[in-house]
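Intended use. Records like the one below are meant for learning the mapping from a protein sequence to its folded structure. Do not use them to infer anything beyond what is encoded.
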Amino acid sequence: MFLVFPKCILSFCIFQLKYTTRTFIETITFIVLTTLKTSLKKRAKICVVKWLHVYLYSASDAMNLRRDVFQAIADPTRRTILLLVASQSMTAGAIASNFNTARPTVSKHIQILTECELLEQEQNGREIYYHLNPQKMKEIADFIEPFHKMWDERFNRLENIMKNYK
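Structure written out for the chain above:
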């Protein structure tokens, strides 16, 4: 199922993006959910925008979208959490004490990192300790390595060219 929006709705989207903290996806989701019939609202969990067509996905598809490792590490808070637990296992409270945000916010970041398998949980009594999953981090590093080599070679060539002009 897809919907194509007229220009007036797209103008509203642009206004919302300029003057609110909503992302484009959140804005489209807001518009779709306020204009759809009640029966469709229950099935519409997330909207993915592509070429101004909005595709409605189920909740399981939405979870798969959120489990993308690169989207997870794109957030600076999540990268900081990964740095914190890289040296030692920590509880959610210990992790949250390093941030000036609410604990539920940090818990949500931890949940996303756990769903991406970047963090692993280990229950010790009543406490749940989080630690880094080195295998998943190695997969990310292996994926990035060819790009690192390519750019390293390009910068080396640029440096050699610049030395010739001195």
